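Translate structure to sequence.
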């Protein structure tokens, strides 16, 4: 007693739901977590990822600041961003200057080591 339209809608809902469900199940069973991905990497690549993690986090922070500033502006999005525009050649190509970032990291590490040595020297006196 169903009309052909209702039958077609039921079939569409059934097949669509099945495809979406299959996609979710396949995604959950095939995509590794970040920890699994890192554990499968070679030690050299893992060390490189760990070395540049703080740089990527800093880049994400800068990108979020730019997005917030752009969202608060009344100008169109293509006029407000500080990101590099390849068509006009404007903006900064790098969000964070990698060389200066690495220099700052090395300086901070040396300062921390120096402070630790000074504390050890005070304990020895």
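Result:
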């Amino acid at each position: 007693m169903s009309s052909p339209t209702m039958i077609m809608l039921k079939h569409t809902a059934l097949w669509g739901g099945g495809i979406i469900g299959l996609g979710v199940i396949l995604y959950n069973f095939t995509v590794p977590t970040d920890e699994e991905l890192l554990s499968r990497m070679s030690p050299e690549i893992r060390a490189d990822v760990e070395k540049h993690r703080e740089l990527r986090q800093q880049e994400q922070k800068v990108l979020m600041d730019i997005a917030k500033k752009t969202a608060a502006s009344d100008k169109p999005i293509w006029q407000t961003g500080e990101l590099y525009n390849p068509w006009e050649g404007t903006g900064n190509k790098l969000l964070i200057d990698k060389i200066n970032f690495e220099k700052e990291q090395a300086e901070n590490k040396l300062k921390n080591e120096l402070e630790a040595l000074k504390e050890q020297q005070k304990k020895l006196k």
